Amino acid sequence: MDSIRALTISDLSAGYSNRPVLRGMHLAPLEPGKVTALVGPNAAGKSTLLRALAGLIPAKGSVRLGDLDLNALSLAKRAQHVAFMPQTLPQNAELSVLEGVIGALKASPLADFDGSGPETRHRAVDALDRLGILDLAMEGIGRLSGGQRQLASLAQAIVRAPDLLLLDEPTSALDLRHQLDVMTIVRELAREGRIVVVVLHDLTLAASWADHLVVLDRGTVVAEGPPEEALSPSILSGVYGVEARVERCSRGRLHIMVDGPAASSEIRHAS
Ligand SMILES: Nc1ncnc2c1ncn2[C@@H]1O[C@H](COP(=O)(O)OP(=O)(O)OP(=O)(O)O)[C@@H](O)[C@H]1O
Ligand SMILES: [Mg+2]
């Protein structure tokens, strides 16, 4: 694939009618080959940020992939560079898993592939195989378990595998082995030279797998950097209202353990 350049986000504002969520957000450039985990409490604005980057809600400010101004592109052109996996999965109960993936390919052709011909089916089958759900290919999406449906939705995002992958809580419904498998694939996709942004609530998972963490709270970036810098007990207390420890296990990996509510915190409302 052509070399991809960094994603730079500056002065980004986005939200919904009568509800601004992100106001003038700046982030350090997100580099190809790196996995960025976006974390923060409910209603912090994580999904809003991914939707704004995908061009699905109106946004002001600058979102650039190298020299390319994504906000200046039509949705169809933008989709050649960006794939987005939504947090809540579209209910296409009528379609089979394979049809859903083929549909995703046809809906947003890539620059080097127009979504037609026999290659479409090959790519779709490869994506299902990569996620270990080839045996579900002919199953109706409406008949899947929550975790299976999440994997089917992830297949729809990764089948196109463009420069920028935006994954909104791809592991929230998955068992331990499937979390491991999906995060391994997320890392592989980055290693192939893509920029991957993944929303996660599991901070230990985020710290284990991401190169870079962005902590959002109330539409604002509270911390960003390597996991050990972005996740401190004081940040966790301020953002989540919990008293927590950030410790390395015997294998040197960061673990986040919650001991109780932060002394000074009230119950946070997700609004
Ligand atoms: N479609 C919408 N219309 C109006 N307001 C919305 C819409 N979607 C989200 N919001 C509001 O925007 C704010 C940010 O929501 P968002 O979905 O980005 O949060 P989040 O960080 O993804 O939370 P969660 O962890 O619960 O998924 C919230 O106050 C929410 O109520
Ligand atoms: Mg969300």
Folded structure, characterized:
With 271 residues, the protein is α/β, with parallel strands linked by helices. It has a single domain (7-224), classed as Rossmann fold, CATH 3.40.50.300. The chain is 31% helix and 28% strand. It contains 9 helices and 12 strands. It has helices at 46-54, 75-78, 97-107, 118-130, 146-158, 176-191, 203-209, 227-230, 233-240; strands at 7-16, 19-30, 35-39, 59-65, 68-69, 82-85, 164-168, 195-199, 212-217, 220-225, 242-248, 254-261. A 6-stranded mixed beta sheet has the order 6-7-8-3-9-10, with helices on both faces. A 4-stranded antiparallel beta sheet has the order 2-1-4-5, with helices on one face. It has a two-stranded antiparallel sheet with strand order 11-12. Strand 9 (212-217) and strand 10 (220-225) form a beta hairpin. The mean pLDDT is 92. Bound molecules: adenosine-5'-triphosphate and magnesium ion. Magnesium ion (MG) is lined by residues 46-47, 87, 168.
Q: Briefly, what is this?
A:
The protein has 271 residues and is an alpha/beta fold. It is built from nine helices and twelve strands. The model has no long low-confidence stretch (mean pLDDT 92).
